[in-house]
Amino acid sequence: MEVSDLRTFMAVMEKGSISHAAKSLNRVPSGVTARIMQMEEDLGVQLFLREKKRLLPTARGQTLYAYARRIIVLMDEAELCVKGMEPGGRLRIGALESAAAARLPEVLARLHAEYPNIELELVIGTSRSLYDDILENKLDAVFVVDAPVDDRLERVAAFEERLVLIATNGHPPIHTPDDIGRKAVLAFQGGCAYRNRVINWFRAYGWEPQHIVELASYHAIVGGVIAGMGVGVVPASVLDLCRTDGMLSVHALEHPLGSAVTELVWRKGMASANVAAVRRCLASCEAPKGK
Prior knowledge:
single chain, alpha/beta, D-Maltodextrin-Binding Protein, domain 2, 3 domains, globular, WH_DNA-bd_sf, DNA-binding transcription factor activity, LysR family transcriptional regulator, WH-like_DNA-bd_sf
């Protein structure tokens, strides 16, 4: 097998179909199919079960994938060393939706201007999903909040967020969960660091949220609050991007949990030239102040 074979195989594993893998590799599906079939013939094993248009990895395929990831990581690392650690090639960055929308545009614009040879891929997720992705080498670096202490990771503070509670216009001041009562809390799905923080804020006062409504974006949370669905929790920086026209009341989360530091995190020993370039751009941009 060649390295290109492994990259093709990994694309099929990660994308779940020949057509999606072909698109990510800028190849025709027939070429990807032929490469996978040739690998199976060379190895003498079946790597995928074919069910209609779906490909399900076999146990042998899963085993090969684990080794392929390690091999590709080593190959990429070797290539960077041989090239003198010059920034360039694919850079896979993960970020929270709020960071991608409100904090990163200036940083990534500078990265594009100063390092045009970097091919940036931006993935949006929750802190939990991004933490899992960085450990599995699916991403090169991530911007996350409350990543667990882990000897396998290195990190640097990127910027601070101030969490606020939003309610309908005219809502009485919110100082403790008593002021929310039985209203629903609008937040992201499980794995969101900000959702976990507001739950812990409730618990700090001996409360549990009566009902959590999971929404897929901050714009949806803002819209849901305006519609009277409940009280939302958002980073203050996100509100600058939303047109609310005076339809919301904003309440600071008056607790240490209301201040959250977003960190840039990467695998220990995997600080590539591209990650170093992100750090330089991050340092050279004046970080917006948390509200």
